[in-house]
């Protein structure tokens, strides 16, 4: 299977470039034949001469000092070690070659690189790398009650972090004198480091034998995503044919082992758990569209995809087809019609097994078949511009999804319970963009969604969403922007096993953003900003005690998250050789989850684990002084303070603060 895919992959790549090469040869041959027949133009156009552009280079060296006290959340996405820094940029344009390279190296786990090369307009190559580090918390478990599941901590005080690298590669080859090109797009992601793994073990099934466990886990995950294809303009029709291969490979500790007591039909022993599966998939896509020059434009897309889980043997086949029609009856009027059909066919083995370290295998039969589905989507959109400074848009979308292997019969264990067989969605939206007032741009949009038989409890029965924004430029020295978005979702008839009474869920989201830019003088600019986010859920909740003997319902349980973010930046140039920048960001966020009867199920009130109040403050100062004629001396200072205001022992937040000082010496050559 794997060998056949590699062979198919190689053949398709060769076909793409051979076909493009043949087009190139044909175009060159055509030019030779015209010359031999004397059909070329008598007037020879003057050959364009590219200007001489001298190479440019920049190099910087420096050192980065780091000091952090307490939680590393104060610099969550920084590698917190002292380190030398270096980087630079090089540009060289000498026709027919263009070369550009850019490097910014902060430390071994935080750097970016960008390399570009092009030959005439025929070939282009780009490689871009972005590597960063994420500090992860070591969350300490707390034994809240002697009668509750016990805790086992195998990683006290250990620091965690993961380095993530993204590599993007693009290669394009254009056939000269013919509208056709071949391309390869590749995306590679790797995650390396270690993180905390929290698990339930012991029996893993029932009280009182189960335990809560924390331990370290080494990860080395790699994702490969490669697409290659051919695109050609065939007169009134443009076509694109592509093939895509995706793989996810797991290194490090792909599985963990711990001791489990007897339960679930298997003997006691040391068993694997929390396994991370590897998978692979491939797909073929063809896209067609007519010329964009007419008043009627049509397009069509078809994709066939298959994927396999290399551990469980589960597989997925997806076919997706769509077509669209765009009609422009007048310059100020347009209509867009689109239809899409998707079929997802999932299969899995009818049995599953697990083997402990003693070699004893337990086989489970009667594994439920996976849920397959068919989805149809139709959308109609219109755009009308009655006057030059006003645009009105409207859209309607219908979506229907049908699922297999579902049942409402709780005694039928061959299919999935509490999963609806069919879901229908109707959505209507209207929007308007206006410049009716001088120097003022206004935009508004409203969307209504109605869902029949929602898929999950978190999906609304219907929702309303509105957005309004305003941009105002009162003068050449000032510009203002503000936007507000509000959405309300409501759900009736929630689905809970053994608890039919709960039936309501309401969600409201508010998001406000305002910013301004002011040029105080020719040498001073000021930019303030403010944003507000509020997310509130009111829902009926069902809870069970630890041994499942008590079931209680809380009606209208509220959960709310709020955040206020303030920011300001000041840029000053007292001299042509001096540039000063000062920035401050302040965030205050709170969250709460309030229950009533459910608190009787636990020795510690449930909302205690979610009540938070955090203040996060960041300051940044940058001084750039021009020196050595074409050089710069740069000093950057950054200070962060992360404050857990409540000092809640039941959450993972810990106080922390720290600073980073960066000294750089930069030199340019032209």
Tally of separate domains: 3
C-alpha geometry: globular
Structural class: mainly beta
Q: Calculate the mean pLDDT score and round it.
A: 88
Number of strands: 31
What amount of the residues lies in strands? over 45%
Q: Unreliable runs, pLDDT <50, ≥5 residues?
A: 9-41
Fold topology:
Layout: H1 2-37, E1 56-70, E2 83-94, E3 97-107, E4 110-119, E5 123-136, E6 150-153, E7 160-174, E8 180-201, E9 211-234, E10 237-252, E11 256-260, E12 269-273, E13 279-290, E14 296-309, E15 315-330, E16 333-347, E17 352-355, E18 361-364, E19 373-387, E20 390-403, E21 422-434, E22 440-452, E23 462-475, E24 478-492, E25 504-521, E26 524-544, E27 551-575, E28 578-593, E29 612-627, E30 631-644, E31 656-669
Structure description:
The structure is a single chain. The chain is mainly beta and 670 residues long. It has three domains: 1-42 and 137-309, no CATH class; 315-348 and 368-447; 456-670, no CATH class. It is 5% helix and 64% strand. The protein has one helix at 2-37; strands spanning 56-70, 83-94, 97-107, 110-119, 123-136, 150-153, 160-174, 180-201, 211-234, 237-252, 256-260, 269-273, 279-290, 296-309, 315-330, 333-347, 352-355, 361-364, 373-387, 390-403, 422-434, 440-452, 462-475, 478-492, 504-521, 524-544, 551-575, 578-593, 612-627, 631-644, 656-669. It has a 26-stranded antiparallel beta barrel. A two-stranded antiparallel sheet has the order 11-12. Strands 17-18 form a two-stranded antiparallel ribbon. A hairpin with a 6-residue loop joins strand 26 (524-544) and strand 27 (551-575). The longest helix has 36 residues, at 2-37. The radius of gyration is 31 Å and the shape is globular.
